[in-house]
Amino acid sequence: MAAVQKTIDAVAALEKYEHGFTSDIDTEYAPRGLNADIVRFISEKKGEPEWMLEWRLAAYERWLAMEEPTWASVKYTPVDYQSLFYYAAPKEKAGLKSLDEVDPEILAIYAKLGIPLKEQEVLAGVEGAARYAVDAVFDSVSVVTTFKAELAKVGIIFMPISEALREHPELVRQYLGSVVPVSDNYFAALNSAVFSDGSFVYIPPGVRCPMELSTYFRINASQTGQFERTLIIADKGSYCSYLEGCTAPMRDENQLHAAVVELVALDDAEIKYSTVQNWYPGDAEGKGGIYNFVTKRADCRGDRSKVSWTQVETGSAVTWKYPSCILKGEESSGEFYSIAITNGHQQADTGTKMIHLGKNSRSRIIAKAVSAGKSDSTYRGLVSVHPKATGVRNFTQCDSLLIGKDCGSHTVPYIEARNGSAQLEHEATTTRLSDDQLFYAQQRGLSQEEAVALLVNGFVRDVMQKLPMEFAVEAQKLVAISLEGSVG
Amino acid sequence: MNAFPLIDLKDASSFPSRRVEAWKYSDLRRHLREAPAPSPSATVPLVGGGPFEALGGEAMVFVNGRAVGETQMMVSGDKMVRLRLISRAQGTGHALTARLSVRAGAKLLLLESHEGHGSAYVAHNRLELDVARGAEVTRIVLTDEPADAMSITQAQVRVEAGGLYRQTILTTGAKLQRLETQVTHRARGADVRLDGVYVLSGERQADLTSVVDHVAADGVTSQLTKGVVRDTARGVFQGKIVVERGADGTDARMGHHALILGERAEIDAKPELEIYADDVQCAHGNTVGNLDEAALFYMQQRGIAADEARALLTQAFLIEVVDRIVHEGAREVVREWLTARL
């Protein structure tokens, strides 16, 4: 009964897109458009070493020679890359000593979003909730990172990547671009050239990170692209759990978010990466919204290493995102749990790649897609087994739920097995919300919308349970909010 | 919607490469850089009546792309047709198009055999099949081609209201072999079954590709493909089910299951669903693995030699598809054909 009550409460608290407010923050921009000088400008702003600038410029050259991919089943007005601002930062000095020095208006925004930036704050309403450290990225810069000192005591480095480039250049240089090469794809090349901020995490050998690490991305400035870069390295035998959240104001224009996330897991290390993506999805007519073109990849380099991706995708006008695992280490394992909810005119093309290179590597994929309104949702995935990878095991399950006559749901899984000892299983189903169940729930006194939220929450439960508690509460509400108005 | 790029054997620029997504695993351009010289008309008299001879029926025969008799047929009543596509060529290419229209309420058992002799030929076969309202068509395909031959078979099937179409393809592959079927549920209540078996060894390849398009409501599609690959052979399965807007009440199911029995053999599978209607039931399952060790052990323990146990388990795995053939005579021919090739 408790779960039902929770859903009812969540539905009761429905709002359209509660993070859609705009804030007037005094912002410094780079000149509009993209050229080598803009790349130099960003690098200089960040006070980067020379090699970094060269790396960026090389990426920019590569990007110029590449073509935007068109294979995903999404349609959108092409991005005019020359009309964007590639750098926008609140006018405030970087390297603040304490939270008190941060622009109070920015703090107010985060307070409004419910992100605790004060270290003593715990998540409201959740008794005994673990503390979690936050790196707050506002447009192109990180405004504040909490719990840095406490984490440093156990040797954990948690800081904006721009700061890491200055303080730990050797670590960054060793790993940056080693999982997602500069020329990996069009958006990754663009990101490599112009990325501005993001989080850098290093967990030393044998350390279990004492708290959840998280980054909260906020796009605020208009006509601005956000290009964040996250790099997480879990050294031998370490563990960390990382959460990522994102929101943006409601605007008529389409804003570009092209991020690159690289994870490296060495021997016996484990990284759990959770995302609740709630970028502004555009209005009811499909106007505005974020283009979310993201490259996320984990390299399970070490033996027995493990990476687990969990994502709840409810926002963005267009999503193009395939968090993947390269399973190089023996007995390494990769997991992908995904909920993709599309409504209105949203389009999502998302999935994962599990590349099995190591012996006895394992992977599990659970993807749930819910499409409503006039939206389109695609699961696109690849499971591949290298000839030398013996004893590989994979299980994939993709379920899609359709709500309404005008939406679409597609499944495009690729399986490439080049080793006789592999055992791969894939199953997929597509159905609509059961009339019987809806009728039953309504007959028990729930309104149609409450009943839909209840059934959808049941449908995505397998994945919901994989989320850290801090996110599960938010995600459950999001599921209800995203589907508001989809029936009747 | 046309999944078939127009391939013209006389024009090398029409050969799809792996850059064309639907041909990702069967790179024709890599194997065939230039258009092959045209095959000569075969003068050798026909020997035998093909694998389905014992079942009788009418014959429709093509040798090196040239029709011995008719290239088109209109079917009414209850008919059995042996469609024999014979290649007798060395390093040359030939193409053919056969058309069959099955009238409303008629029944057709189409027994198709690809009989390859000679070597390194390139064959391009096109089949157009119309299944009218309430008609029933069963198409069974057996292919026997040399290991160095290349063949592309593209069948386009249109099924009208209440029509029934059942297809079973069995193949041992070739150097590059593509067996493509495109089926359209053109009107309400069509019932389609697409089955396949591939048994590949050596360096052979077979690509079973299908696109089933549900344009109309209440269509049923059921697909089951099973395959075994040994040595360095490569099995490809691509199945796509499209449910267009308004095709409510569609029930589509697809299964592909493969055994990799060689350390360096390969399976590439891509079962796809593209759905634009909400009142549907669609599912696909896809597994790749090896023989069950426990079952092997059990059989050996009962005195069955390891090789024999493997052969029995493999046969049991594949025979499920053959058992779905409704016509008893055809089923027995296919069973024998398959058993001889395991």
UniProtKB/TrEMBL annotation, chain A:
Record domain SUF system FeS cluster assembly SufBD core: where: 217-459
Span of domain SUF system FeS cluster assembly SufBD N-terminal: 151-208
Q: Tell me the Pfam families matching this sequence.
A: SUFBD_core, SufBD_N
What does the record list as coiled-coil region(s)? none
Q: Which family does it belong to?
A: Belongs to the iron-sulfur cluster assembly SufBD family.
Query: What is the name of this protein?
Result: Fe-S cluster assembly protein SufB
Name its species: Brevundimonas denitrificans
Gene expressing this chain: sufB
TrEMBL record, chain B:
Pfam families the UniProt entry points to: SUFBD_core (PF01458)
Domain SUF system FeS cluster assembly SufBD core, first and last residues per copy = 99-317
Q: Which SUPFAM superfamilies match?
A: Stabilizer of iron transporter SufD
| TM region(s), chain numbering | none
Classification via InterPro entries: Fe-S_cluster_assembly_SufBD (IPR055346), SUF_FeS_clus_asmbl_SufBD_core (IPR000825), SUF_FeS_clus_asmbl_SufBD_sf (IPR037284), SUF_FeS_clus_asmbl_SufD (IPR011542)
Looking up NCBIfam families in the UniProt record yields: sufD
| Designated name of the protein | Fe-S cluster assembly protein SufD
What species was this sequence derived from? Brevundimonas denitrificans
